[in-house]
Specification:
Elements lengths: L1 H16 L3 H8 L3 H8 L12 H13 L4 H10 L3
Helix pairs in contact: 1-4, 2-3, 4-5
Length: 81
Amino acid sequence: MAGKNNRARLRAAVKKSGMTNKAVAAYLGVSPRTLRAWLADPADVSARPCPLMAALAMEAAEKLGDGNVSEGIRLALKGVK
């Protein structure tokens, strides 16, 4: 059940970021295929449970960037703030 909530949280953060799945996957340190599996509909055979850390990482980037996820990621990778 928690995996569904994590999936929804991650989907919302990815959508809000405006970033490509490839860029989000790179930020999270996973392959684009893994990210797609986390975002997939749970009924899809390729779907995998979405870990809480993925949703939290994107949400933290949004907070760091004052609502701008991609800016937060840029700052996080730069080690600023």
